Amino acid sequence: MRQGQVIEICSSEDIQTGVEKELLVFTRMSLYLKAEGEVDITLSLSPNGSDFFEVEEIEFEEAGDAVFEIGYVAKKIKLEADNDTDITAIIYGVY
Q: Could you give the domains of the chain?
């Protein structure tokens, strides 16, 4: 039977300087995002925990939320916003 785990990346925080979180070896994971206003968020992943590769830029034209399936295996995730809008980000992964 598969098991899942929730990893909180940030909760109503300014991530303009970036926020990083270690991940488990998930076979599947989803990123849940909530933005308190207009913001662009850069999603990067690291296969080794130190070198990050940009995967996607996520744009919020106004406050709202979104869910993204991440089809990559990574050791760490990094989110960085282009302004000081508060962001909540949660990973739900299955392994």
A: 4-84+86-90 (2.60.120.1050)
